């Protein structure tokens, strides 16, 4: 009697080894028969049922199930909420409102990561506002890239669909949305940097979560996605919003927004950076790293860095407040 094996498609994220992430993706699993003999009807039914249960379990644990987590950090409340992928009709309506021919195939419109003070002000990260930062008009640089992509995929049935009058890579320089009805944080330029060495120190992680905002696989020839994750320590919190783009055979781009707050300070530090390299510039980098944002980032050319302070509305909002 032959065995039934489950093989995960390389484009899915059910395991940590795929693209270096536990993120959810489209379910694309196939059944592989390990011998030439046919299964009996009963065994086939049992095997398929087992496959369905595995798929359902994976979906429930990787983001298709609605969930919401709250964590209190002194006067701050961190909220991580995730929900289902937007319905097709809602995506079509939103695309029309944004004047874009299409939107990412996996759009989590209700997913959000929010950091809010008891006084009402704060910052949040959501998919809709991230997409509002995508260029919905023809851009010479983006179109040139699309033409190069098209040439590299001349045999693809989708290659003729790439050059469009909008940024088909969904590249966004989104850095978060300031919130607050009566007051908001004020953004000012600064030369102060986040002390990344300090963040490397071993410290208890009181809360951690990651939220996927959108993802698109560019007709199976790359990936464009943005996600946000946060970790809260006893005296600070650190957040990373990352947009990752890989166009197979053309380029890799990463836009990072890092946000750091230390208890007692009257401001947050926010750093935005853009890293990008053409594939031709990565000849000495193992191709296996191209799919892992954490690994490939250090090999990309730094194009831009901007540092800002998010000033709290009044000093008393942060200073001398006792953490719980």
TrEMBL record:
Pfam families: TIP41. This is TIP41-like protein. It comes from Labrus bergylta. The lineage of its organism: Eukaryota, Metazoa, Chordata, Craniata, Vertebrata. One of its GO terms (cellular component) is cytosol. GO terms for biological process: chordate embryonic development; negative regulation of apoptotic process; TOR signaling. It comes from the Eukaryota. Belongs to the TIP41 family. Coiled coil: none annotated. InterPro entries: Phosphatase_reg/MetRdx (IPR051330), TIP41-like (IPR007303).
């Amino acid at each position: 009697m032959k065995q039934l094996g489950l093989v995960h498609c390389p484009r899915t994220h059910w395991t940590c080894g795929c693209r270096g992430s536990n993120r959810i993706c489209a379910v694309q699993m196939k059944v592989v028969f390990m011998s030439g003999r046919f299964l009996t009807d009963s065994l086939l039914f049992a095997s398929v049922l087992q496959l369905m249960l595995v798929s359902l379990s994976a979906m429930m644990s990787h983001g298709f199930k609605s969930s919401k987590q709250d964590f209190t950090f002194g006067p701050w409340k961190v909220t991580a909420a995730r929900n289902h992928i937007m319905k097709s009709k809602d995506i079509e309506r939103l695309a029309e409102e944004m004047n874009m021919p299409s939107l990412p195939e996996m759009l989590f419109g209700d997913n959000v990561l929010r950091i809010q003070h008891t006084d009402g002000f704060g910052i949040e990260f959501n998919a809709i506002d991230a997409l509002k930062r995508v260029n919905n008009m023809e851009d010479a640089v983006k179109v040139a890239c699309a033409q190069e992509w098209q040439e590299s995929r001349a045999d693809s049935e989708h290659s003729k669909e790439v050059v469009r009058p909008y940024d088909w890579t969904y590249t966004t320089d989104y850095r978060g949305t300031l919130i607050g009805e009566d007051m908001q944080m004020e953004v000012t330029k600064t030369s102060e940097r986040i002390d990344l060495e300090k963040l490397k120190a071993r410290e208890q992680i009181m809360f951690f979560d990651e939220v996927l905002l959108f993802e698109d696989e560019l007709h199976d020839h790359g990936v464009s996605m943005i996600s946000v994750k946060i970790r809260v320590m006893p005296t600070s919190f650190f957040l990373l919003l990352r947009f990752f783009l890989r166009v197979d055979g053309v380029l890799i781009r990463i836009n990072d927004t890092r946000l750091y707050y230390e208890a007692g300070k009257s401001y947050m530090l926010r750093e935005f950076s853009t890293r990008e390299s053409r594939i031709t510039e990565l000849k000495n980098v193992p191709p296996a790293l191209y799919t892992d944002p954490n690994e490939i980032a250090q090999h990309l050319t730094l194009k831009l860095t901007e540092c800002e302070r998010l000033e709290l509305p009044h000093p008393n909002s942060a200073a001398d407040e006792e953490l719980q």
